[in-house]
């Protein structure tokens, strides 16, 4: 077993087949230059920083204060943005990308933030204003209350009981405020009540309208009915003093007697968040106060207007820059965040960082560092120093907007192990193809193709439109995948000769009518009983011998009787061929992996037995399928050395495969010695020596299983044993004569141990149990997988059948009805039914069926294809890049 | 543009526009295929009881049926062209309302 190549010594590979070569490097940055350097690296977006102080909590790091300041600044800017949006000022969002600003620019930004004060001022003013308005309302309303009371008081004092009789006839609004004396008969008692009433105290205030009923009830209960509440609704909608939301309020005035009740009432008012306002006793004072309040309100209005103007000006000025400021602050924040990951040198003069970076980009990284150092005016250059490591580097696959969709499909299953074969380039071809095999219809393919084409052509506009709809984003993100799926669907639809379940006779069918007209006439004239008999085109007569140039002959579309039996047989065999081809390709890719990682054991005891197993059973089956297609036609003749009597003797492959495993004795050829056809001639062997070869194949396949199972563990065990013995041999005992002790010296290990890939040949002692279990799982998975995965590929046939049938049903059950009617009614029916047919085609056949075919294609790639070679044990390279950070922030903002 | 008959929103009108364009093309082509008497469309022809008569339908009748269906498709295609104009106007009207 060879060891791993150290990174950098291998020949460069084209980027897409494997992940980029990565290296671990140390950066030594001058304290002064570090900020600029990190900013440059952030613009470049090609290095991943490692956290060098994972034990230090977030609050103990060096640049905590700066990060906190940025956070605060960001919060303020977000508030500013919120305010701008509230005032409906259009924001200038050019999406431009300013360079990361110098740290001192942060101070400028902080200085700019005068909005807060403006806001604060405005808030106080607004609060004042609404308080004054409330007071105004109170004064106005209480005035009426008091007037009523006064009027009443006069009446009580003057009219006495004489007014009582007339009072009942008074209108409701003129009813006295305080109904006293109703039950009191004698004058002296009434007088005392009057005296008491004159000593009544009162409080006035404002309360929210919805709180009023509860307030009233509580007052009644708590004061046992000894207070009197009078309310009046304020017609204007007031603004809440604190939040500024519009609220409906009520003015209330409470009359009571004595200090005890006064404290009680005040407490209740407090509890209901009612605002109490001082209200003078005499009408004179009230009037004066009212005038005073009015003038103050006028003054405040002007001040408020000016403040709002000022605020608007500030916001308009800010709206031009706020997005850019936000971008800048986010950049600064991310830089300090990154600086927090650094190690600080003992001398405090330099920061040390460890980074993962792609080897191919080292030059650009060095250039960026140089730029950063120059900009900061530092004399000492920043140093990048490559380090050796046993850690598995992150996986970095370069993508562009086309390959991204496919790489995402692969990554969703698992990130590739470092430098493992990347399935994405193969997926780009096989994924749309397998999808299209299940979705074969030219018409639906064209719909899909045009939709994706629209997305691709309008790419820029649609991206700028920032449509938040998740479903739309999914389709838009996968536009290149959908585009290819559409193109491939058109191709497979062409091969299946299906356009909305109709066929096109582009090259002229190879079949012609072989039945003479008298037979047809007889059948047609026969009436009832003849409608059940079907005429058959005999292939020997009707088929002209040369097949339809490409795809399925259109005549099958009209063959109501045996269209499905023909298409099923063809599609089923085709699925097996595609499936086994893809699985074999997967196993071949595993060879690429094994050679790359130089693990001979895997090649010898995994790859070779696997490929032999696959060939002797499944590839043999494929060859049988092709042979049957090629040699067993409709005409009798001599095929592969045997006399072939006709289609009824075409070999049955499935039962043949079962018989191959059972090693059952079979007739050789289709005819016995006397020249008669065997009964069940389709079960006979159909080429000389078939039984012999098949027995060999089965035995070889069975023999491969123990090799896969025990080969690798045995050699690992043997190697381990050798190593241990060798290790003992390399020990030397150096006995010092002068001293008593003897020291044992281990000869230094010659080969550095590989890290990562492979099992049981890492560091440490070999755990035979683990290796055996692992190997057993893999072997069983492969052997059983070959069978079950081949069966799994039959979904290609099943879904394609389902799709074709569904579109056929849509045509015959829906659209065909349009042609039943004649004349103009028929035209209108066509118009209406086409709309239904079209909508159903798009929503059911293209969207739903497309989704299901997509999922099945996904499964075939993840399980059936990638299980043959793909480890997927790596972790994603996530470089420090302003672009991704800003995009993420923006996404967070929008959600 | 004034408020004249706002029937559908921008999404609905866009969908109808796509459907109408498709309708014009699809039905136009289908008419052509009926006109050239494509065999694959034969199952779509419908013969009533008295047309079918005593079993065998004369060739001339089949041909006239093909022609009739072709015209029918073209009329429907024409209707979709009219729809397209109407929907296009709706769409334009609605978009001007939005911006």
UniProtKB/TrEMBL annotation, chain A:
Any one Gene Ontology cellular component term annotated for this protein: plasma membrane
Any one Pfam family match given in the protein's UniProt record, by short name: V_ATPase_I
Predominant subcellular localization, coarse grouping: membrane
Organism domain of life: Eukaryota
Cellular localization per UniProt: Membrane
Keywords, alphabetical: Hydrogen ion transport, Ion transport, Membrane, Transmembrane, Transmembrane helix, Transport
Transmembrane spans: 433-457, 478-496, 574-591, 611-632, 692-715, 782-804, 824-848
Any GO BP annotation: vacuolar acidification
Membrane-related topology note: Multi-pass membrane protein
Family annotation (InterPro entries): V-ATPase_116kDa_su (IPR002490), V-type_ATPase_116kDa_su_euka (IPR026028)
Gene Ontology molecular function: any one: proton-transporting ATPase activity, rotational mechanism
Job of this protein: Essential component of the vacuolar proton pump (V-ATPase), a multimeric enzyme that catalyzes the translocation of protons across the membranes. Required for assembly and activity of the V-ATPase.
Family listed: Belongs to the V-ATPase 116 kDa subunit family.
PANTHER family in UniProt: V-TYPE PROTON ATPASE SUBUNIT A, VACUOLAR PROTON ATPASES
Name of this chain's protein: V-type proton ATPase subunit a
Gene: Cre-unc-32
Automatic annotation (TrEMBL), chain B:
Keyword Transmembrane helix carried by entry: yes
Location within or outside the cell: Membrane
Keywords, ordered alphabetically: Membrane, Transmembrane, Transmembrane helix
Bilayer-crossing regions: 12-36, 69-89
Family: Belongs to the RNase K family.
GO molecular-function terms, A-Z: RNA endonuclease activity
Official protein name in the record: Uncharacterized protein
Major localisation: membrane
InterPro entries assigned: RNase_K
Cellular compartments per GO CC: membrane
Topology relative to the membrane: Multi-pass membrane protein
Taxonomy, superkingdom: Eukaryota
Signal sequence range: none
Native species: Caenorhabditis remanei
Lineage: Eukaryota, Metazoa, Ecdysozoa, Nematoda, Chromadorea
